[in-house]
Amino acid sequence: MKVFKLGDMKGGWFMGDFEPTLLASKDFEIAVKKYPQGSHEHKHFHKISTEWTVITSGKVRMFDQIFHENDIIVIEPGEATDFTALEDTTTVVVKTPSSKNDKYLVD
Questions:
Q1: Strand order across the beta sheet in which 50-57 lies
Q2: Do residues 4 and 22 touch, judged by C-beta distance below 8 A?
Q3: Global pTM?
Q4: Residue 33: is its pLDDT beyond 90?
Q5: Where do the structural domains in the chain lie, given as residue ranges?
Q6: What percent of the chain has pLDDT over 90?
Q7: Do 79 and 95 touch, CB atoms closer than 8 A?
Q8: Which CATH architecture has domain 6-98?
Q9: Measured by CB atoms within 10 angstroms of the end CB, which terminus of the chain is less buried, N or C?
Q10: Integer Cα distance of 28 and 85 in angstroms
Q11: What are phi and psi of 7, to 5 degrees?
Q12: pLDDT one-digit tens code per residue, 47-85
């Protein structure tokens, strides 16, 4: 048995093609991300990866829409969005493939 702490991972990302990781893979990335109310990520897109975001608790604004607990948002390559936590929020995020330097900020 091995035991790890999510807090020891970078930004909640714990599997994928980066360090530290529990399982190195170029095929996918997985994260559990916690956002306090008011947290914001700037508008960005990926050229290669598709991203699945599951809202496990809380409420967020993405794509100028409100999403709640149990919503799953699929973001295809080239689709740009920002992210604002309207409440304390936890998400599970899966990206495929795991692609280094595939985050492009939008002005």
A1: 13-15, 29-35, 89-96, 50-57, 72-75
A2: yes
A3: 0.92
A4: yes
A5: 6-98
A6: 98
A7: no
A8: Sandwich (2.60)
A9: N
A10: 24
A11: -65, -20
A12: 999 999 999 999 999 999 999 999 999 999 999 999 999
